[in-house]
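To whoever is on call:

I kicked off a structure prediction for a single chain this morning and the downstream step that reads the tokens threw a length-mismatch warning. I double-checked the sequence; it's 118 residues and nothing unusual in it as far as I can see. Pasting both halves so you can look.
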Amino acid sequence: MVQNVKVLPALIRRRYREGASLTVVTRELGVSKSTVRRHVPAQERRDASAAARQRHRNRAEEPYEKALRAQVVRLYGSGMPQQRVAATLGISVEAVVARLEPSQRRSRQEAARLAVEQ
């Protein structure tokens, strides 16, 4: 926790500009999120949010991510349930669903029919 209140705004801005999130800054400095928001200009927070969204979009184009998506689509398309695909690849069910396009997902009825067949 920061003892000197006069240096607090400068510390908050510096840590945020270094790439630390609001949550990380609050934990490191022992202040509330509203205090951090008050000392980081709104435009700067918006710019950081936009940069984070862009990083997330670019991540989908990495070779590992493309290969993982292809495996998920192949396994799920072969009739394997989401839970088994997740266990096979060592990822969560949510990660499986996130890598499937809405048109690739099965309905509950179709999933139940495939489960009975297996």
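Update from on-call: the warning came from a stale cache, not from the record. Cleared it. Sanity check on the structure: The chain has a mean pLDDT of 84.
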